[in-house]
Amino acid sequence: MVGHGAQGGGSRCRHDHRRARCRQAGRGEAAIAAEGNLAHTYSADVSDPAECAHLVTQVMANHGGVDILINNAGRSIRRAIENSYDRIHDFERTMSLNYFGALRLTLALLPAMQKKRAGHVINISSIGVLTNAPRFSAYVASKAALDAFTRCAASNSPT
Question: Which residue out of 42, 85, 99, 139 is catalytically annotated?
């Protein structure tokens, strides 16, 4: 997420929507600070509805919204279908993070973007959606769902 600080003198506000185990969060803040800009990092497990809600509440309270939301969190499970018959939980976990997490953040932050008639949502997908990669059915299904949502939402977006 790049927040409202992106106006004026070029200061940026950066929010990481993944858990602190993201190795690059600290380096991102340092690089932005080295350019003379300000960075804020927030962490949340976007597969957890309560953590998503808390993240959105924090970001809205501290920054009034975001200018750009980049949904890039992803979890991949590599397993053949014949090894997945009794593993529906793998599909549920993958959808929870890759699709529902992105959807929660988008639906929570989009009203403020629409109110100011400015903002962008960028959803990161996978080439697997086009190629139907073997052993990645849970992952590809979750990214295909996000792709379908994105196309439908874009077709009726007022901005």
Answer: 139
3-state secondary structure of 95: helix
139 noted as active-site residue: yes
Name beta bridge partners: 121.
69
Largest CA distance in the chain: 56
Tokens of residue 69, six digits? 């939301």
| Nearest Cα to Cα of residue 144 among 101, 98, 81, 108 | 98
Q: What is the pLDDT of residues 1-58, one digit of tens each?
A: 533 222 332 223 343 333 333 334 455 777 778 888 877 888 899 999 999 999 999 9
Query: Sign of dihedral through CA atoms 60, 25, 51, 96?
Result: positive
Amino acid type, 121:
V
- The tens digit of pLDDT for each residue in 57-83 reads 999 999 999 999 999 988 988 999 999
Q: Of how many residues is the chain composed? A: 159
Give the residue among 75, 76, 64, 49 at the shortest CA–CA distance from 1: 64
